[in-house]
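quick one before i forget lol
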Amino acid sequence: MKEFKLNPDFAIADELALRGLFEATHALAVQKCQDSLGKHAQEFIRRSPFLCIGTQSPDGKADVSPRGDPVGFVKILDERTLAIPDRPGNNRLDSLVNILANPNVGLLFIIPGFDDTLRVNGQASLTTDPDLLQSMSVNDRAPKLAIVVEVNEVFLHCAKAFRRSHLWDPGHFQDRSEMPSLVKIILDQTTGAPSDENEMRKIDADLEDAYKRTLY
């Protein structure tokens, strides 16, 4: 594939040039932004089994991480504070390390079947408060820590992206088998995947077994 290079003649370099491409922001788009969790935002969060958290590393590199659990896994501590349990993962700890260096985070809450999403921005901190962690136990297993977010910006995002993508439409679902498995992709990119199909199937099966044993 030929390397792409941006033509500087068409680059947008400042906010004035950017805003010149668009109509003025609708008044409601500005007014809808709240500084705390109202009743509708709280209800949305209680229904959500999934969110993405955006963080930034000390050297300015952006990162987005998915978080999922049973419906309502994010605890609403008060109108300005949320707590997100940190479940077992790959132990890269990218988001957590980033939060220690830069507490500013962005959250996107998603509810299956809903085309609108909830955006929450704020400052995060990490805690091992045993009472809080115990309250977020699943299958009698408490998380090792929680991400506590002090909320300063909340608003619902419109449905256009989900409508355009047909995200929840089964008629647009793709066949996962048309791409290699997760493990094979990673092995292809690193040490190399085994050529023997039976060996590869065993590695895939081991991952599925690990999912069952280590979700919590």
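fyi Residues 174-214 form one domain.
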